[in-house]
Amino acid sequence: MDVLLTVTTTRPPATDLGYLLVKHPGKVHQFDVPTGTAYVLYPEATEDRCTAALLLDVDPARLRAQQESFELGAYVNDRPYAASSLLAGALAKVFRSALRGASKDRPELAAEAIPLRIRVPVLGGSTELATRLFAPLGWAVTAEPIPFEPEIGGNSRYVDLSLSGTVRLADALNHLYVLLPVLDDAKHYWVAPDEIEKLLRSGAGWLAGHPEKVLIARRYLAHRRHLAESALARLEVAEENPDEESELPVARKVSLAEQRRAAVLAALTEADAARVIDLGCGGGALLAALIKDRRFTEIVGTDVSSRALDQATRRLRLDRLPTRQKDRIKIWQSALTYRDDRLRGYDAAVLMEVIEHVDLPRLPALEASVFGHAHPRTVVVTTPNAEYNVHYEGLTGMRHSDHRFEWTRAEFRSWASETAERYGYTVEFRPVGEEHETTGAPTQLAIFKEKEATA
């Protein structure tokens, strides 16, 4: 299960490539990365021609631990076989100095454009898109579609990519770091706001003027609209003022994620909830907001993903919290489609951007577990409004690759009303985010209140 990238130069002495990469051509170099083991080795190393290979050996067990998806998505995917953001992440760790253009032994060579040939034998994407992305950067691009077996016929969604050009090695590596996940269009990790800085840093000097910068920003930032808009605004400033620091000229816009958390916190406060459980807590963004408010005396975060719980633990810095603070919060692994006695007896439960990740046939099991068995006094649910998706330029399908469905406002109201009636709740609906007169708000929120509590 190996993913491969090779870099070749013919600039004599070609073995100076080892100095630029800070990896000796006579050795095999091994690195531990989050999803497996990366190796750097040299299949050929002569004065006339030198090739360095980055080999990523993906560990399926570690890969599953990295997944936030449900059901078989964590087990059946192309990540161990095709270049993607996994390879880009390994490249960033293994060639950190080379990406910065730093070379203690050959500083003048690090600043020089040299003849390079780069090959990625298996990469998700199309020939046409690979050309659109790499050709404006001075590369001669060959992207051959990889065919299916003869008995099947036709071509797969993968290409064998070769790039040739005279380019500074640091620029070449930064092109790859940004554009490999853009071609694949499926990041393997949660995309946070700090990814904007990584994009701008790696795209310095070339991204602002790239004809596909909009597509690159959107795909690199996993189609998170507010992040892409922020990155593009800063790129626009950089293009207009190339000698000045890139800086947003306007006040920071509150992201939809922040608006969503604020709406959930407001609903919990109105419900006078002190003991709250965040079901499907993910990386712990809502938990971090809850723990700052002393009104919430007991806070629990649950998720089926052990990786997500590890992220939440790190975000909350549980190992550093004072004892009094630490006693307020618990982290549990739990699957929402199964009954869990630990979830009973809470004032409120939150399902924030969770239900759309559950297969529709499994949704009744979640309803029975949360609304029936756990049965908190208040349940707050948020989910995307499918009608609003027309405002996301370039979006095809759903907002996230792991979404099993996205409902219109009518569909969400129908489900929520039926669920409330079935399990003894009333339900109130609220929009979250900027509303459009015909399509509504980007997020829809429902507040379920136990009928006895409202009597």
Automatic annotation (TrEMBL):
This is Small RNA 2'-O-methyltransferase. GO terms for molecular function: metal ion binding; RNA binding; small RNA 2'-O-methyltransferase activity. InterPro entries: 3'-RNA_MeTfrase_Hen1_bac, Hen1, Hen1_N, Hen1_N_sf, SAM-dependent_MTases_sf. The keyword S-adenosyl-L-methionine applies. It is an enzyme of class 2 (transferase). Residues 3-235 form the Hen1 N-terminal domain. It holds the Pfam family Methyltransf_23. Its EC number is 2.1.1.386. CDD domains: AdoMet_MTases. It comes from the Bacteria.
